[in-house]
Amino acid sequence: MSEPEQGGAEVASEGASALQASLANLAHVLGGGCGSLQLWVDDDLGLHPRAVQGEPGTVADRRMARQCCLLSSVQVEANRAAVPLRLSDRRVGAVLVQFASAPTSSQVQHLQAWVEARLDALDTWLVDERLTRLSGVARRAEALRVALAAAHDLEQVASLSQGFAALHRALGPLLVAENFFVVLLDERREWLHFPYHCDQYDHNWEPISFRQGRLQGSMSAIIVAAGRVLRGSSEELLEQAGHGDTKDDHLYGPNASDWLGVPMVLGAEVSGAMVVQSYQPGFRFGEDDPAVLTMLAEASAAALYRRRVRETLERMVAERTAELQQARDAAEHTLSQLRAMQKQLVMSEKMASLGQLVAGVAHEVNTPLGVALTAASLLDGQTVALERSFSDGRLTRSEMQRFVNVARDATGMVLRNLERAGRLVHSFKQVSVDQTVDARRRFDLSGFLQELLESSKSMWKGRSVEVSVQCSPGIELDSFPGTLGQVLINLIQNALTHAFAAQAAGEIGLSANTLADDQVEIRVRDNGVGVPEELRDKIFEPFFTTRRNQGGTGLGLHIVFNLVTQTLGGSIELVQGSAGTDFRLCLPRKAPGGVATSDPAQSKQA
């Protein structure tokens, strides 16, 4: 345990006369250029400081002192400098010095050092000066106010020994407190510590065991254990406690003529004690002294409790902050891992999609190529047999006719399947959208949809299906009409293929209107059989089809999805809960990238 401050010995080292002499000698410290010096102290409201030492102050002096007190900072103006005083009773003051000329920074620093070195003496002198202006009950009330303020300050002071030293100085005007110490019980209630002590004779202030102290006659331990005021000479108190045989044992210090100890109580818990004692023969503390000391002890106990709570809260906040920082670091580390994993997942999904595409290509193209290869092999075998018969001179007219029939069927089969393979390869190429194929231009959406409808009527010719268009007028797009037309044709073809039976009646509707943020909504609806709930999330996947045995490749809606999201810069979704099938496209009025040309139709009209 570090050695506590021996603060009381210096409390009154500089009295009023010594202070005045010290102020007078300050001129020597600051050099020959130092003139008058004033000591100012603020009032209770902190608004009107008054000069309590030195020459009478002018209006300018008062204004500068007030500024120094309010800002609690050094003020330099013309040939004057003011240094703030931070006083123990929560007031402030100022030391104002007038120089022969503008003070140098070195002189101001010397003045600050002089004030800091004599702050306790200045504080004590100012308290005494204030008390001398009061009398009787008012004086005592003022002294008690100062002492209570010092007790309350224990909650915030940086060092408890310094806080108790300030309280000791404040006790002087209230009672004889030349010998004063504070004892505190630790949180485990095992040891008694002495954070502050000032005694004429006793110099042993090591911590003592709470239990052993009670057994061996320590008055500090007895008062903390009893939790009540103890007053009397050391001999009397030891006799009352049953330790009269130890009154000549100086283990716990010399015997006092009068010993006054009060417990520091908060609620029902005793946390320590405050003790004053006198070794002057025949001395007795006053009748009011126990009440005064008790009041200060209870105020100190409350302040120490608040200090412990604040320190506990600050420790908890620091620990919680550290935990949160650790959690944040862990979360950031996890997030970074997740981002890395996400990149790997995206890459793996791309590779899986590529693998699926290759597998789909192999599967779809393999069938027509296999049929063509079989037909070609058959034709090759028939050709070899024909050549052999011709070489042997055994070729008959009927054999030649059979060969011609087989060749016609085989070549037809080869051509049909190679054409199918070519169409499949063309569809596969559409999966990777070539943005350079379609020209970008500005066009009117309503006219475009009408033209698209007129040019596509052959798709549903001969069927009981009605296709209609509803579009708000005046919607102009800066986009790729060829790509948009391909998307809409594919969606109409999808409805014709999947929504209605071959001879069933039905309706397909195209509608368009504007949305906020320069967006356009296009809907393609039908009143057909719709899409089963379990298949809705799969319809845009490549090679997903419900008609593979009927020639479907599963690439139609996948191509539509890529065209809408990549070339047109929009989105497409299958609307939930609608009867039949309802595709909703959201497209920007201005497609990303490129520069549009003018609408040829509009140019002709112009």
UniProtKB/TrEMBL annotation:
Gene3D superfamilies in the cross-refs: 1.10.287.130, 3.30.450.40, Histidine kinase-like ATPase, C-terminal domain (3.30.565.10)
Keywords annotated in UniProt: Coiled coil, Kinase, Phosphoprotein, Transferase
Residue ranges of domain Histidine kinase in the record: 360-591
A molecular-function term among this protein's GO annotations: phosphorelay sensor kinase activity
EC number: 2.7.13.3
Database matches in SMART domains: HATPase_c, HisKA
Name under which the protein is recorded: histidine kinase
Organism field: Pseudomarimonas arenosa
